[in-house]
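Sample A.
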Amino acid sequence: MKKNFLAYLLLTIPLVSFAADNHVEQTLNRYKQFLDKGTYEGAPCINSLAVKPQTRYYTFKKAFEHFVQHQGKVIVELGTTRSYTHGGLPGCMQDNIKYWEPTNPESWDWGAGFFTRMAAECLAPYDPIIHTIDIAPTHINRCKVMTHDFKDFIHYHVTTSEAFLNQCQPESIDLLYMDTGDIDHTTALLHLREAKLIVERKVMSPNGIILIDDIKNFIPGDPSQLGKGKYSVPYLLSHGFEMVADEYQVMLKKSAQ
């Protein structure tokens, strides 16, 4: 990637000004149509469900407002935002910047949620510290470009989710976003290992919440219908957590003692 092209691209990313009142809702509303469309089009199995779940817009809003209400500080994202272009366009999951359109949200990879950018935009007025983790250096490098205007409070880590959780201090995470891997059995087992570390190391703060992506994007025929959370969600529910939202994503918090 040539530096002059990268510099030009970074200059095209719009800087955002903030007013704290209703900032989460106002920001998400700008992207609602994309979050809704990306959720449903990316998970055709939703059509087999008796009740259509709420999209990522709903659970992002609920999670971010909870974070603000409880004066959260630290966000950890397991699995970074890794593509600037969605799967219906050339250039998806590629480093070639000729395909990237920073000022055209319609082209962004909404099927994957775009959490890093959404969390940064929605919560910037509240001085968060965001840690985004991915095993692939190319994914982290793309995320750095996508979130360049928020780089002062985002920390980018090339490591495994398990290694990162293993070094977290007790009660140090206010919002944990679990989005590692693809939708398959291997990923479901990884999420279970992550869940065990969350419980064993007690990494969630007293008002902390866990948001797990792709729950209703399950493999056809899987009776659990829990996608990536096939094993982690039941484990967390039996180890001190309760369900706050059960939609395309699930949101959990510590059970009342």
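Sample B, a different protein:
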Amino acid sequence: MTLANDSILVTPGSGATVATHLVASKELQVVVPADVNGHLVESAASYLFTVPPIAVGANKVMLDLFNATGSGLTLRLVTVLAYKEGSVAVTGVLAVKLSLTRTTAVGTGGTAMTLEGTTLTAPNICKMDPANAALHANITARAAPTGGGTAGAVLAQRQVFPEETNAASYGAPVDFLSGLSGHATQRLVVPENTGIRIVQGAVASVGSVGFEVLFQTV
């Protein structure tokens, strides 16, 4: 990650040199924006957690991502997406209701993610930029955890209709953070000793759902 390293006082006719760019015969000041944490935009290390489609089930925890004490980092969620499996035929009468919640303990069991994995059917976390530092060992994730993952505050609820031929929803991912996070609002953050999970509601439904979680470490 790159932090803005200086500030300057500019006085007309004197002071430090400020970068400009010529547009329509006028020199315009060049600005490099920074976020609220002081990181230059697009410079915070970013990672993508992917969970290939897994079978739905009543009250099933689909995934968890946990930031254990000692990482020294905060996770800032950029997108949390769910998408239905479209290559397997199902007859979906009922939607799959999914809730995004915080957690206060790490999940256990299930399938632990790999880092920079190459298997198409396993949960994986990859660097958005190969030059990023390796993900801290205290940040862990898994698909379909069978224990732990103590439930915290409910953040958002969405529904995925599993019928693979339904034209209205085919191929369109469901965004848990749509309307919750943007330039004018705070990002959803995951401090140390907390995490997130996605859990299905009490109705079983049918089919499989996959997930993508894009996050930054700051």
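Observation for Sample B: Residues 170 and 211 are 15 Å apart (CA to CA).
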